[in-house]
Amino acid sequence: MTRADTPTGPPPWRLLLGYVRPHRWALLAGAVLSLVTGATGLLLPLVARELIDDLSHDRAIASALLLMTALVVANATLGAIGSYVLRRTAESVVLGARRALSSYLLRLRVAAVDRSEPGDLMARITSDTTLLREVTTDSLVGLGTGGLTLVATVVMMGLVDPVLLGVTMAVVFGAGTVLGVIVPRINRASRQAQDAVGAMGASLERVLGALRTVKASGAEHREERTLHAAAEESWRQSVRAAKWSAAAGNTAGLAMQIAFITVLAVGGARVATGAIDIGTLVAFLLYVFYLMSPIQSVVGAITQYQTGAAALSRIQEALRLPAEPRSPAAALPADDAEPAALAFADVRFRYAEDLPYVHHGVTFAVPPRGMTAFVGPSGAGKTTVFSLIERFYDPESGTITLDGRDLADWDLPRLRSAIGYVEQDAPVLSGSLRDNLLLGNAETDEDTITRVVKTTRLDGLVARLPDGLDTLVGHRGTKLSGGERQRVAIARALLRRPRLLLLDEATSQLDAVNEAALRDTVADVARTTTVLVVAHRLSTVTMADRIVVMDAGRVRAVGTHRELVTADPLYAELAATQFLAAAD
Ligand code: ADP
Ligand code: MG
């Protein structure tokens, strides 16, 4: 996501108010407590005076001191509670935004993720949301308390002398015009600073995701420069924002001094003509002084808000990425659920409008039960067939049906709960081996796990691992080999008891013995389940009930190995070269 496609929409503060709304009473309480603490702080000297005056009468010193101490302690306690409540509320706002964003990102359409930088999305959840904290306490509370004081002071000024109020307002509006120029610059710089943090996240993800390749290619220095450049860009823009914020704060201060001088001059003239008396002028000047602090806090709130608004607009963009509808998780099929029937009819598909078509009218039908193999040169569109079945993407035209029903009419979780999918290069997630196996079906009983571990020939691995099934694997634990990863992925898919099993080159990295064993397992599963495999090994392909030959986004031929060897030259060639080369 770049600045260029920044969409227009509701202003960021609407989003902020949405996150603040559940905590509005706590926020109000915090603000009131802070106000009260400030006000009572001002009253303390007066109370002290009263008490000291009283001492000349016959009151005991001890009780006077006690009362004062009690007041001071009460004031400090209220102050502490007030700032705790405010800070806590602000953290809750951050929490709300993070929850909303993480839920949303899990629902993102795969196509939306394809076109985003995961590192940048991550920065939006972690770093941009953090900025909402200051916005909530400083901007909202500052604007609220400062604004209230401001209005009250202005009303008082109007009562004292409307003419002098007019003079003051003229100066304030002058300053407002200057601020109108400065404030958008703070916003722009903050936005660019946050974008740079996002870019840094993206670069980090790129480097850490491929650290071995980066090191092996000797590309550390080049990657280091990219990371530093992003960090420096964020610094540059933050410094720019700081410069404009400083300018804004001092513009407000300067305006108030000018207002003071102007009121003095105009007020003096009015006193001379007898329009007002000197007492009125003095009172008004005092109000101009009082105006200083709320104006500073309102301007501070506005400048502080610019950073938050930049973060909010980045959050808003993430929340506008296309996502799947929210629906409750569906139950997995029962043990004896019927195998699924699947059909593609004239499916045309491309990954994006600016990319070429990947499927140019793909048509085939798969009856329930049995094994269907998809073969064809790499890039033919085989993996894409599986992605469309999972509805990671939707076809542009044509229909895909499962059990005779258009995929578009299926409830998405129900559709996916019917499918077991082993993607090409399926990853192992960090966590225990057990977590990995039960990812798609947390309710599996121990006997079933043991059985599937055996049929996928993971029992040897489990026996070898220090903590068996509970050994940590993936990121923070034991790394698995390619073949082990593939067997884990197959076991994971089988434990879902799928009605439709999709295996995309799922045994490509197995050794001959394991491959033969898994082939038997899959053949066994195909007796009760519809199985689709993308395979390169002749041994797997020949045992399929039907073979779909794909080339350049089209289905060339469908048949058995015997039929196709004579009927389809491409298949014959594949069988003669690639399959045989891959077969052991
Ligand atoms: P196969 O599995 O038969 O090797 P794929 O279905 O993976 O082929 O890919 C078919 C074509 O679609 C290829 O040209 C590939 O570059 C392209 N492609 C695959 N995935 C994406 C994607 N996420 N975004 C854009 N293009 C893609
Ligand atoms: Mg593929």
Automatic annotation (TrEMBL):
Ranges annotated as spanning the membrane: 25-48, 60-86, 140-157, 163-183, 244-265, 271-292
Origin: domain of life: Bacteria
SMART domains for the chain: AAA
UniProt entry keywords in alphabetical sequence: ATP-binding, Membrane, Nucleotide-binding, Transmembrane, Transmembrane helix
Keyword Protein transport belongs to the record: no
Domain ABC transporter per the UniProt entry, residue ranges: 342-577
Cellular location(s): Cell membrane
Topology term for the membrane: Multi-pass membrane protein
Domain named ABC transmembrane type-1: residues: 28-307
CDD domains in the record: ABC_6TM_LmrA_like (cd18551)
UniProt GO molecular function: ATP binding
PROSITE patterns noted in UniProt: ABC_TM1F, ABC_TRANSPORTER_1, ABC_TRANSPORTER_2
PANTHER family tied to this protein: ATP-BINDING CASSETTE SUB-FAMILY B MEMBER 10, MITOCHONDRIAL, ATP-DEPENDENT PERMEASE MDL1, MITOCHONDRIAL
Protein name: ABC transporter ATP-binding protein
Source organism (scientific name): Streptomyces pharetrae CZA14
Lineage of the species this protein comes from: Bacteria, Bacillati, Actinomycetota, Actinomycetes, Kitasatosporales
